[in-house]
């Protein structure tokens, strides 16, 4: 008689993979979302997997359309034309959550340009919520920004817009016909002819990288409901920030743009031919600080040769909501510390001050943390100020002078970290 198998009579061995859920058991809505993470060409190829997959790609919630350089040669969009045209034709008006165009080093061809513009308008008609555009012309020597058409964006559904390596003008950046738009990210773009960025719905604005601003005039940022701002200016004139009563946090970094003068620290050298002080059209009043005055958290970093912040301090607003402030060495020169004193006197509810001194980036070798003496607190600082941090690469004479100034404000009792 053969030996009896363990497990009892009639019990069968479990099938390999039993208890696991196959991807085919997922609902269509989940598979549509999964397909949105694939490049468009790969998403379409899933049609050969099984009968059920034959048409799933048509309703994918996202599209990733890209082409890039091969062997350092220009990419011809014509190779992509038939695929994308048929893709949009077969998708029809299926709604999109996200769409990404990543077209790098493409030929500068009028037909290709018109086709790309049509693609962008088509995805807007598909009620896309997040649109990302990163496109460059082919050049043997440098990257050349792709020029968008002069038509404004019109969408009732667009919530997030990411723009990279593009040439932008007033028409495209007039978002008055995009009432749901909340987030804009602009990176490495050319905007020399821009007069304004206009949006009442915008809550987050980021302009970073080496964007090229105009050297002859300042454009206006009009976004009264903005909550978060990140602004970097390294080429051209610093833009004018209009009032932002809802602003919570802002980071402003000024590199080596056209707002500098070898003769005056505050942009008033009295030489009417000076391009730095008098070279911008319609340049009157406060440029940055008035628009930032209602923020709760500020990071203000500038090259020491720039004058725009010091000029603004002549009509310095009250930072009535400001609780955390980070400054670099720009605010501590010249040695009279007038710029630092002014902004501290105009920050009545400040709780934390960080001085990031002579550092290449946010990291530092030396970290000192001090606090004001409540019995000897200076009237020049907020009664709410609890923490003062000083970060630097090395404690040299420049840093020691700043510590001496803080000591006059009764800020000491430092704890060191290395």
TrEMBL record:
Superkingdom of this protein's organism: Eukaryota
Pfam families xref list: F-box
Name the UniProt record assigns to this protein: F-box domain-containing protein
SMART domains: FBOX (SM00256)
Signal peptide from the UniProt entry: none
InterPro entries: F-box-like_dom_sf (IPR036047), F-box_AtFBL13-like (IPR053781), F-box_dom (IPR001810), F-box_SCFL_complex_component (IPR053197), LRR_dom_sf (IPR032675)
F-box domain segment(s): 20-56
């Amino acid at each position: 008689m053969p030996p009896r198998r363990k497990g009892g009579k009639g019990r069968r061995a479990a099938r390999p993979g039993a208890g696991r859920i196959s991807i085919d058991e997922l609902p269509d809505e989940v598979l549509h979302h999964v397909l949105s993470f694939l490049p468009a060409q790969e998403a379409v190829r899933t049609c050969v997997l099984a009968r059920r997959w034959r048409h799933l790609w048509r309703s994918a919630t996202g599209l990733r359309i890209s082409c890039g350089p091969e062997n350092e040669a220009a990419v011809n969009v014509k190779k992509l034309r038939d695929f994308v045209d048929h893709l949009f034709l077969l998708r029809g008006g299926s709604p999109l959550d996200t769409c990404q165009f990543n077209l790098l080093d493409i030929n500068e061809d009028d037909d290709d340009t018109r086709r790309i513009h049509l693609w962008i308008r088509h995805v807007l008609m598909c009620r896309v919520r997040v649109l990302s555009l990163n496109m460059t012309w082919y050049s043997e020597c440098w990257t050349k920004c792709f020029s968008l058409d002069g038509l404004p964006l019109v969408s009732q559904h667009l919530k997030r817009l990411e723009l990279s390596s593009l040439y932008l003008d007033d028409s495209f950046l007039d978002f008055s016909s995009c009432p749901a738009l909340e987030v804009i990210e602009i990176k490495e773009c050319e905007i020399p002819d821009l007069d304004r960025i206009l949006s009442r719905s915008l809550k987050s604005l980021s302009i970073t990288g080496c964007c090229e601003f105009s050297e002859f005039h300042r454009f206006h940022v009009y976004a009264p409901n903005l909550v978060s701002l990140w602004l970097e200016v390294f080429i051209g004139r610093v833009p004018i920030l209009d009032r932002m009563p809802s602003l919570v946090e802002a980071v402003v970094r000024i590199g080596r743009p056209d707002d500098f003068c070898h003769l005056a620290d505050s942009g008033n050298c009295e030489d009417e031919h000076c391009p730095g002080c008098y070279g911008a059209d319609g340049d009157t009043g406060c440029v940055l600080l008035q628009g930032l005055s209602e923020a709760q958290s500020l990071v203000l970093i500038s090259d020491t040769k720039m004058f725009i912040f010091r000029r603004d301090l002549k009509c310095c607003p009250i930072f009535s909501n400001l609780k955390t402030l980070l400054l670099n060495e720009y605010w501590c020169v010249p040695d009279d510390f007038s710029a630092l004193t002014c902004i501290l006197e105009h920050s009545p509810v400040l709780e934390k001050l960080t001085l990031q001194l002579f550092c290449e980036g946010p990291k530092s070798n030396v970290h000192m943390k001090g606090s004001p003496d409540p019995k000897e607190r200076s009237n020049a600082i907020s009664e709410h100020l609890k923490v003062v941090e000083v970060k630097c690469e090395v404690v040299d004479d420049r840093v020691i002078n700043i510590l001496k100034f803080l000591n006059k404000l009764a800020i000491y009792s430092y704890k060191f970290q290395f």
